[in-house]
Write a sequence for this structure.
């Protein structure tokens, strides 16, 4: 397959195992790397969501999926993982064109989705309850773990296949039926995977996809009384609105929201490793990553040398679109987002930080796309917008520190708490930092590593609930207590 497609992909919703045409004007998706029209999606309405929820509700209540033995669900999930692997290149190209990222990065996202499906398939064999045998001679207590019901999944635009894998894998493994609302910007791979799911053996109506905007389709999904649980990944502001809307039907939600991670480099770190890690943490996926380590905290005694090396490496970073197999970074997702990133870059200079590299909108060979050269700022202070606000773009903000205590205070000086990284050879320092940092994940001498086994989520303004691992599967379950008495009760009334 070539690295670009020429046909415009046109989709309807996926409801009840078949494609359903949208009733309104289609949503045109132009690739941000070159401006070319690459896909058209249906603009979902409240009626479309209601139809999808009804399908999911019927399949859940009938037990066609939820009542299957875990081993049977596991077999189907493995078949779906294999089907995705067979279509890896097509799915990767779909994501690459819609997101504007280089094809190798999109392939890695698809591989991540496969890994989550395979791990969730293993967990489907081991959905455990508890037994209490010490309640008395005539009593046994059982704690059952059952699927929560119909799960509404709302996925973001930056990692379409991977984010789908982090939610759908565990929802299906638990026995839930699903209504998925992907981003209106990057819905293609979700619809393709829904088709593959039917071929792999997921019963029709268990996985439904409604495309469209958050204010219409997303809102209807969250407010639907037929949805038992909502898992959302996106901005903190949207997460707050979702939590409020879900409260009207008293449904549980899991929110994976924004981040403003710190990448803390101590003088005793392996500096070659730390430079690589700092670049990756700030610029991976063009900085459009909730766990980006965009606040780089560097110990004072090595800061000059470290920043000099960072700038030299940053200036060698290559930008390109899906067709450029050798590109490191891609385009930003859309013009409005690029304007906000450029505004934050301008604020850094206006507030007194030193822009050492990049930060400009690229023209020339990149003029047809939305490309911003990766920026490195030094001298960033805690009161600056670059320190406080999530940029979600290729911007690194360097702040210097003089002690472990100062590093902890700076890293925790944020409303967010998703992921932080620490670079040190001192195990005592590493453990102290791990304990002290307020975030759902702490990486030591690595960054943005996410094995499927490890639960992922945030604290503070980064949300609550967990994805991935056993904890991720358990989000899609409810506990039920059952007390069994084997003897005859003594009369107590009358």
């Amino acid at each position: 397959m070539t690295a670009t497609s020429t046909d415009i992909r046109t989709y309807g919703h996926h409801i009840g195992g078949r494609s359903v045409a949208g009733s309104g004007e289609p949503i045109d998706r132009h690739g941000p790397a070159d401006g070319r029209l690459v896909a058209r999606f249906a603009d979902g309405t409240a009626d479309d969501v209601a139809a999808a929820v009804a399908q999911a509700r019927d399949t859940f209540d009938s037990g066609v999926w939820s009542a299957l033995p875990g081993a049977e669900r596991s077999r189907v999930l493995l078949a779906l993982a294999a089907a995705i692997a067979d279509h890896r290149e097509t799915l990767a190209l779909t994501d690459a064109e819609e997101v504007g990222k280089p094809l190798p990065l999109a392939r890695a996202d698809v591989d991540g989705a496969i890994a989550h499906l395979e791990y969730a398939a293993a967990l489907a064999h081991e959905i455990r309850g508890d037994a209490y045998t010490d309640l008395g001679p005539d009593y046994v207590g059982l704690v059952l773990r059952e699927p929560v019901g119909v799960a509404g999944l709302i996925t973001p635009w930056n990692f379409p296949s991977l984010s789908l894998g982090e939610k759908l894998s565990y929802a299906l493994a638990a026995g839930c039926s699903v209504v998925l609302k992907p981003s209106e910007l990057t819905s293609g791979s979700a619809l393709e995977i829904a088709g593959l799911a039917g071929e792999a053996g997921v019963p029709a109506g268990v996985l439904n996809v409604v495309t469209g905007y958050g204010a219409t389709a997303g809102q209807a999904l969250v407010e639907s009384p037929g949805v038992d649980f909502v898992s959302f990944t996106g901005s903190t502001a949207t997460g707050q609105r979702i939590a409020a809307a879900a409260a009207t039907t008293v449904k549980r939600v899991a929110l994976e929201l924004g981040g403003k991670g710190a990448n803390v480099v101590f003088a005793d770190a392996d500096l070659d490793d730390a430079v690589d890690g700092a670049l990756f943490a700030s610029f991976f996926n063009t900085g459009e990553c909730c766990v980006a380590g965009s606040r780089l905290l560097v110990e004072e005694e090595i800061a000059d040398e470290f920043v000099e090396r960072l700038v030299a490496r940053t200036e060698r970073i290559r930008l390109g679109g899906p067709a450029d197999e050798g590109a490191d970074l891609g385009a930003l997702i859309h013009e409005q987002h690029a304007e906000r990133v450029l505004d934050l870059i301008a604020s850094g200079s206006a507030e007194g930080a030193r822009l050492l590299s990049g930060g400009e909108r690229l023209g020339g060979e990149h003029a047809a796309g939305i490309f911003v050269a990766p920026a490195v700022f030094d001298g960033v202070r805690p009161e600056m917008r670059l320190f406080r606000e999530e940029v979600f773009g290729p911007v690194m903000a360097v702040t210097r520190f003089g002690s472990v205590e100062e590093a902890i205070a700076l890293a925790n000086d944020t409303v967010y708490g998703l992921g932080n990284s620490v670079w040190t050879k001192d195990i005592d320092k590493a453990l102290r930092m791990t304990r002290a940092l307020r975030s759902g994940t702490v990486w030591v001498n690595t960054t943005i590593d996410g094995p499927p086994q490890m639960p992922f989520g945030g604290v503070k303004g980064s949300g609550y609930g967990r994805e991935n691992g056993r904890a991720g599967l358990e989000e899609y379950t409810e506990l039920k207590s059952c007390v069994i008495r084997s003897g005859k009760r003594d009369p107590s009334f009358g």
